[in-house]
TrEMBL record:
Subunit structure: Monomer.
Top-rank lineage group of the source organism: Eukaryota
A GO biological process held by the record: ATP metabolic process
Gene source species: Salmo trutta
GO molecular-function term, one example from the UniProt record: ATP binding
Binding site for ATP: 32-37, 146, 191
Name under which the protein is recorded: Adenylate kinase isoenzyme 1
């Protein structure tokens, strides 16, 4: 890719270059750990763009498209949708916002090491990974409570258990993978929301 000179001699940056140079923060944690809650607060304080991979998928389901129907079936089972589908959605959403964004919070992605590797190939490298950590029983309790009002078809006991199992199996290795690069900040999400956010803010303030 790279930059190309236009007729006027100006340097033109392609969309790919622009998102590659953007500030990218991965937000990783188990289902119901509080990723979305913290991301909202980061948006309010820092003006970052919040992209929840789960929300992007749910928007596709809500559109009623054929692709949405396939996705709904996978999500209902608590399984992972194919990597390319999520990655393309994230990339399109980033391109749409890159000119007005101070940085991106990529929430609920990567779900497995391979997703992280592909993201870096197709988009760019994260400068920080916020690891939102809560106990299994806390996450289940929060999700059962959220399920009373969320309308999310995966907020039921059976699917929650599958999401949690998959998190421990597939997603926790992501944290080890990025720890070796020194960009992981572990955040204790058992604390009250505002205290959790204090730690999140410290991690973000520490970025250059
Ligand atoms: N007590 C307490 N509850 C929290 C905290 N963070 C989130 N919650 C609650 O836990 C539930 C799940 O929080 P979300 O922010 O939706 O969690 P998430 O990690 O985005 O969950 P998924 O979208 O399922 O991955 C919500 O009902 C929140 O109100 C916290 O720090 N403390
Ligand atoms: N990167 C992603 C994100 C979500 N998903 C799917 O979307 C569902 C909901 O994702 P989410 O991030 O909103 O919620 P949690 O499963 O983390 O609680 C997951 O259970 C997966 O089925 C996925 O397959 N790949
Ligand atoms: Mg969420």
């Amino acid at each position: 890719m790279g930059c190309s000179a236009s007729c006027s001699g100006r340097i033109v940056h392609s969309d790919d270059d622009k998102i590659k140079d953007a500030k990218i923060i991965f937000v990783v944690g188990g289902p119901g750990s509080g990723k979305g809650t913290q991301c909202e607060k980061v948006v309010a304080k820092y003006g970052y763009t919040h992209l929840s991979s789960g929300d992007l998928l749910r928007a596709e389901v809500a559109s009623g498209s054929e692709r949405g129907k396939t996705l709904q079936a996978i999500m209902q089972k608590g399984e992972l949708v194919p990597l390319d589908t999520v990655l393309d959605m994230i990339k399109d959403a980033m391109i749409a916002k890159v000119d007005v964004s101070k940085g991106f919070l990529i929430d609920g992605y990567p779900r497995e090491v391979k997703q992280g590797e592909e993201f870096e190939k197709k988009i760019g490298a994260p400068c920080l990974l916020l690891y939102i950590d809560a106990k299994g029983e806390t996450m289940v309790k929060r999700l059962m409570k959220r399920g009373e009002t969320s309308g999310r078809s995966d907020d039921n006991e059976e699917t929650i258990k599958k999401r949690l199992d998959l998190y421990y199996k597939a997603t926790e290795p992501v944290i080890a993978f990025y720890s070796s690069r020194g960009i992981v900040r572990k955040i204790d999400s058992e604390l009250p929301v505002d205290e959790v956010f204090g730690h999140v803010a410290k991690a973000i303030d520490g970025l250059k």
